[in-house]
Protein backbone atom coordinates (compact mmCIF):
# COMPACT_ATOMS: atom_id res chain seq x y z
CA UNK A 1 0.00 0.00 0.00
CA UNK A 2 1.44 3.34 -1.08
CA UNK A 3 0.21 5.27 1.96
CA UNK A 4 1.04 2.66 4.59
CA UNK A 5 3.33 3.63 7.45
CA UNK A 6 6.81 2.12 7.44
CA UNK A 7 6.77 -0.96 9.72
CA UNK A 8 9.25 0.56 12.19
CA UNK A 9 7.04 3.65 12.57
CA UNK A 10 3.97 1.53 13.22
CA UNK A 11 5.80 -0.52 15.84
CA UNK A 12 7.11 2.60 17.55
CA UNK A 13 3.67 4.18 17.62
CA UNK A 14 2.13 1.03 19.05
CA UNK A 15 4.72 1.04 21.83
CA UNK A 16 3.97 4.70 22.61
CA UNK A 17 0.31 3.79 23.09
CA UNK A 18 1.19 0.67 25.08
CA UNK A 19 3.27 2.70 27.53
CA UNK A 20 0.48 5.23 27.98
CA UNK A 21 -2.09 2.52 28.63
CA UNK A 22 0.27 0.65 30.96
CA UNK A 23 0.67 3.85 33.00
CA UNK A 24 -3.06 4.08 33.53
CA UNK A 25 -3.96 6.67 30.90
CA UNK A 26 -7.38 6.62 29.25
CA UNK A 27 -7.23 7.65 25.59
CA UNK A 28 -9.76 8.71 23.01
CA UNK A 29 -8.90 8.30 19.35
CA UNK A 30 -8.25 12.05 19.22
CA UNK A 31 -5.94 11.84 22.26
CA UNK A 32 -3.99 8.99 20.68
CA UNK A 33 -3.71 10.81 17.36
CA UNK A 34 -2.38 13.94 19.07
CA UNK A 35 0.09 11.89 21.13
CA UNK A 36 1.42 10.19 17.99
CA UNK A 37 1.20 13.15 15.61
CA UNK A 38 -0.92 11.18 13.14
CA UNK A 39 -4.40 11.44 11.67
CA UNK A 40 -7.24 9.90 13.75
CA UNK A 41 -7.74 7.03 11.32
CA UNK A 42 -4.16 5.85 11.89
CA UNK A 43 -4.55 6.07 15.67
CA UNK A 44 -7.84 4.19 15.45
CA UNK A 45 -6.25 1.30 13.52
CA UNK A 46 -3.48 1.00 16.11
CA UNK A 47 -5.93 1.03 19.00
CA UNK A 48 -8.04 -1.62 17.29
CA UNK A 49 -4.95 -3.79 16.85
CA UNK A 50 -4.12 -3.42 20.57
CA UNK A 51 -7.71 -4.33 21.47
CA UNK A 52 -7.57 -7.43 19.23
CA UNK A 53 -4.54 -8.76 21.13
CA UNK A 54 -5.88 -7.85 24.59
CA UNK A 55 -3.56 -4.92 25.29
CA UNK A 56 -6.39 -2.38 25.24
CA UNK A 57 -10.14 -2.34 25.68
CA UNK A 58 -12.80 0.23 24.86
CA UNK A 59 -15.08 1.52 27.63
CA UNK A 60 -18.67 2.68 27.25
CA UNK A 61 -17.48 6.23 26.58
CA UNK A 62 -15.57 4.90 23.55
CA UNK A 63 -12.24 5.61 25.18
CA UNK A 64 -9.43 3.10 25.50
CA UNK A 65 -7.94 1.68 28.70
CA UNK A 66 -5.36 -0.97 29.52
CA UNK A 67 -6.60 -4.41 28.51
CA UNK A 68 -6.19 -7.73 30.34
CA UNK A 69 -2.74 -8.38 28.90
CA UNK A 70 -1.44 -5.19 30.54
CA UNK A 71 -3.41 -5.55 33.74
CA UNK A 72 -1.69 -8.86 34.47
CA UNK A 73 1.80 -7.43 33.94
CA UNK A 74 4.21 -7.61 36.85
CA UNK A 75 5.01 -4.38 38.69
CA UNK A 76 8.19 -2.56 37.75
CA UNK A 77 10.04 -3.80 40.81
CA UNK A 78 9.52 -7.45 40.04
CA UNK A 79 7.05 -10.20 40.74
CA UNK A 80 4.18 -9.65 43.12
CA UNK A 81 4.73 -13.10 44.62
CA UNK A 82 8.35 -12.42 45.51
CA UNK A 83 7.50 -9.08 47.09
CA UNK A 84 4.68 -10.70 49.02
CA UNK A 85 6.90 -13.44 50.41
CA UNK A 86 9.53 -10.90 51.37
CA UNK A 87 7.31 -8.48 53.30
CA UNK A 88 4.67 -10.87 54.65
CA UNK A 89 6.31 -11.41 58.08
CA UNK A 90 6.38 -7.64 58.64
CA UNK A 91 2.75 -7.35 57.55
CA UNK A 92 1.68 -10.09 59.95
CA UNK A 93 3.51 -8.46 62.84
CA UNK A 94 1.96 -5.06 62.13
CA UNK A 95 -1.48 -6.65 61.96
CA UNK A 96 -0.98 -8.36 65.32
CA UNK A 97 0.07 -5.06 66.92
CA UNK A 98 -2.74 -2.86 65.60
CA UNK A 99 -5.48 -5.47 65.21
CA UNK A 100 -6.59 -4.00 61.89
CA UNK A 101 -6.26 -5.21 58.31
CA UNK A 102 -2.93 -4.46 56.62
CA UNK A 103 -2.47 -4.14 52.85
CA UNK A 104 0.65 -3.85 50.70
CA UNK A 105 0.43 -2.22 47.27
CA UNK A 106 2.48 -1.34 44.23
CA UNK A 107 1.51 1.39 41.77
CA UNK A 108 0.95 0.70 38.09
CA UNK A 109 0.30 4.03 36.43
CA UNK A 110 -2.86 5.55 37.89
CA UNK A 111 -3.88 2.27 39.56
CA UNK A 112 -2.76 0.18 42.50
CA UNK A 113 -2.13 -3.53 42.50
CA UNK A 114 -2.50 -5.53 45.68
CA UNK A 115 0.64 -7.37 46.78
CA UNK A 116 -0.40 -8.74 50.16
CA UNK A 117 -3.17 -8.48 52.71
CA UNK A 118 -3.61 -9.79 56.24
CA UNK A 119 -7.06 -9.55 57.81
CA UNK A 120 -7.44 -7.76 61.12
CA UNK A 121 -8.11 -9.56 64.38
CA UNK A 122 -10.70 -7.09 65.68
CA UNK A 123 -14.45 -7.57 65.09
CA UNK A 124 -15.89 -6.32 61.79
CA UNK A 125 -12.43 -5.87 60.31
CA UNK A 126 -11.98 -4.79 56.70
CA UNK A 127 -11.59 -7.58 54.13
CA UNK A 128 -8.01 -8.28 53.09
CA UNK A 129 -8.62 -9.87 49.68
CA UNK A 130 -11.34 -7.93 47.84
CA UNK A 131 -9.15 -5.07 46.72
CA UNK A 132 -7.19 -4.72 43.51
CA UNK A 133 -6.86 -2.29 40.62
CA UNK A 134 -7.85 0.60 42.89
CA UNK A 135 -7.53 4.17 41.53
CA UNK A 136 -4.38 5.41 43.26
CA UNK A 137 -5.70 8.88 44.06
CA UNK A 138 -8.57 7.45 46.13
CA UNK A 139 -6.53 5.45 48.66
CA UNK A 140 -4.05 6.19 51.42
CA UNK A 141 -1.41 3.89 49.93
CA UNK A 142 -1.96 5.29 46.45
CA UNK A 143 -1.68 8.89 47.57
CA UNK A 144 1.49 8.03 49.49
CA UNK A 145 3.00 6.53 46.31
CA UNK A 146 1.79 9.40 44.11
CA UNK A 147 3.41 11.89 46.50
CA UNK A 148 6.77 10.50 45.37
CA UNK A 149 6.15 11.98 41.89
CA UNK A 150 6.78 15.58 40.85
CA UNK A 151 4.15 17.67 39.07
CA UNK A 152 5.47 16.84 35.61
CA UNK A 153 5.31 13.13 36.33
CA UNK A 154 1.79 13.53 37.70
CA UNK A 155 0.79 15.32 34.49
CA UNK A 156 1.97 12.30 32.50
CA UNK A 157 0.28 9.71 34.71
CA UNK A 158 -3.02 11.60 34.61
CA UNK A 159 -2.84 13.06 31.12
CA UNK A 160 -6.23 11.48 30.43
CA UNK A 161 -7.71 12.85 33.66
CA UNK A 162 -8.33 11.21 37.02
CA UNK A 163 -9.99 7.83 36.90
CA UNK A 164 -13.64 8.13 37.92
CA UNK A 165 -14.60 7.26 41.48
CA UNK A 166 -17.89 7.73 43.27
CA UNK A 167 -16.41 8.24 46.73
CA UNK A 168 -13.37 10.53 46.52
CA UNK A 169 -13.61 14.27 46.95
CA UNK A 170 -10.51 14.76 44.79
CA UNK A 171 -11.88 15.12 41.27
CA UNK A 172 -9.30 17.32 39.49
CA UNK A 173 -5.56 17.00 38.98
CA UNK A 174 -4.95 20.40 40.57
CA UNK A 175 -6.84 19.32 43.69
CA UNK A 176 -4.77 16.13 43.79
CA UNK A 177 -1.52 18.09 43.52
CA UNK A 178 -2.54 20.31 46.43
CA UNK A 179 -3.46 17.26 48.49
CA UNK A 180 -0.18 15.50 47.70
CA UNK A 181 1.75 18.52 48.96
CA UNK A 182 0.14 17.86 52.36
CA UNK A 183 1.01 14.16 52.12
CA UNK A 184 4.66 14.99 51.45
CA UNK A 185 4.76 17.34 54.42
CA UNK A 186 3.21 14.79 56.76
CA UNK A 187 5.09 11.76 55.46
CA UNK A 188 1.91 9.67 55.36
CA UNK A 189 -1.51 9.73 53.67
CA UNK A 190 -5.06 9.34 54.90
CA UNK A 191 -8.10 7.85 53.22
CA UNK A 192 -11.48 8.81 54.68
CA UNK A 193 -14.06 6.64 52.91
CA UNK A 194 -12.57 7.56 49.52
CA UNK A 195 -11.98 4.03 48.24
CA UNK A 196 -15.08 2.51 49.77
CA UNK A 197 -17.85 3.65 52.07
CA UNK A 198 -17.22 2.70 55.67
CA UNK A 199 -13.46 2.22 55.30
CA UNK A 200 -10.72 4.64 56.40
CA UNK A 201 -6.98 4.18 56.09
CA UNK A 202 -3.44 5.34 56.74
CA UNK A 203 -0.62 4.65 54.27
CA UNK A 204 3.10 5.21 53.85
CA UNK A 205 5.84 4.33 51.34
CA UNK A 206 8.75 1.90 51.66
CA UNK A 207 11.87 2.64 49.60
CA UNK A 208 14.72 0.47 48.41
CA UNK A 209 18.42 0.88 49.22
CA UNK A 210 18.73 3.65 46.61
CA UNK A 211 15.79 5.60 48.00
CA UNK A 212 13.37 4.60 45.23
CA UNK A 213 9.73 3.97 46.19
CA UNK A 214 8.93 0.27 45.91
CA UNK A 215 5.61 -0.26 47.66
CA UNK A 216 3.16 1.28 50.08
CA UNK A 217 1.76 -0.28 53.24
CA UNK A 218 -1.60 0.74 54.62
CA UNK A 219 -3.92 0.12 57.54
CA UNK A 220 -7.57 -0.37 56.58
CA UNK A 221 -9.87 0.54 59.46
CA UNK A 222 -13.68 0.50 59.70
CA UNK A 223 -14.90 4.09 59.83
CA UNK A 224 -17.02 3.35 62.88
CA UNK A 225 -13.89 2.98 65.02
CA UNK A 226 -11.46 5.23 63.17
CA UNK A 227 -10.52 8.14 65.43
CA UNK A 228 -8.39 11.11 64.36
CA UNK A 229 -6.82 11.13 67.81
CA UNK A 230 -5.44 7.66 67.07
CA UNK A 231 -3.68 8.70 63.85
CA UNK A 232 -0.30 9.44 65.54
CA UNK A 233 -0.31 5.95 67.06
CA UNK A 234 -1.25 4.37 63.75
CA UNK A 235 1.52 6.31 62.02
CA UNK A 236 4.12 5.26 64.61
CA UNK A 237 3.28 1.58 64.16
CA UNK A 238 3.19 1.93 60.39
CA UNK A 239 6.53 3.77 60.39
CA UNK A 240 8.19 0.97 62.35
CA UNK A 241 6.85 -1.56 59.85
CA UNK A 242 8.05 0.56 56.93
CA UNK A 243 11.55 0.76 58.42
CA UNK A 244 11.64 -3.01 58.87
CA UNK A 245 10.49 -3.45 55.26
CA UNK A 246 13.13 -1.03 53.99
CA UNK A 247 15.77 -2.97 55.87
CA UNK A 248 14.67 -6.15 54.11
CA UNK A 249 14.59 -4.42 50.73
CA UNK A 250 18.08 -3.01 51.25
CA UNK A 251 19.54 -6.45 51.98
CA UNK A 252 18.24 -7.78 48.66
CA UNK A 253 19.37 -4.92 46.48
CA UNK A 254 15.99 -3.25 46.67
CA UNK A 255 14.40 -5.00 43.72
CA UNK A 256 12.43 -8.14 43.09
CA UNK A 257 13.75 -10.32 40.32
Strand-helix topology:
Layout: H1 7-22, H2 29-36, H3 40-52, E1 56-58, E2 64-66, H4 68-71, H5 80-98, E3 101-108, E4 111-118, E5 134-135, H6 140-146, H7 151-157, H8 173-186, E6 189-192, E7 199-207, E8 213-222, H9 231-251
Helix pairs in contact: 2-3, 5-9
Structure write-up:
The chain has 257 residues and is of the alpha+beta class. It is 42% helix and 18% strand. It is built from 9 helices and 8 strands. Strands 5-4-3-8-7-6 form a 6-stranded antiparallel β-sheet, with helices on both faces. The protein has a two-stranded antiparallel ribbon with strand order 1-2. It is elongated. The model is unreliable at 1-6 and 72-77 (pLDDT under 50).
State the major sheet. 6 strands, antiparallel
pLDDT averaged over residues: 86
Helical content (DSSP H or I, runs of 4+): 40-55%
Distance between the termini: 44 Å
What value does the Rg take, in angstroms?
Answer: 20 Å
Strand order of the largest sheet: 5-4-3-8-7-6
Q: Which residues sit in consecutive blocks of at least 5 with pLDDT less than 50?
A: 1-6, 72-77
What is the count of β-strands?
A: 8
Record keyword descriptors for this entry.
two-stranded antiparallel ribbon; 257 residues; 42% helix; 8 strands; six-stranded antiparallel beta sheet; alpha+beta; elongated
Q: What's the short story on this structure?
A:
The protein is of the alpha+beta class and 257 residues long.
Amino acid sequence: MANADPPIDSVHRAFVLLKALRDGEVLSVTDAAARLGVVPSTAYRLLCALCFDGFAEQDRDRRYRAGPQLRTAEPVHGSVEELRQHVHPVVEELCSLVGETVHVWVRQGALLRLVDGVPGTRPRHVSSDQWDRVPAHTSAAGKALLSELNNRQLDLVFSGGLLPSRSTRIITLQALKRHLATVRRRGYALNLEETAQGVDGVGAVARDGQGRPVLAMSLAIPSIRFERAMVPEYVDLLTDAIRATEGLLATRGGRAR
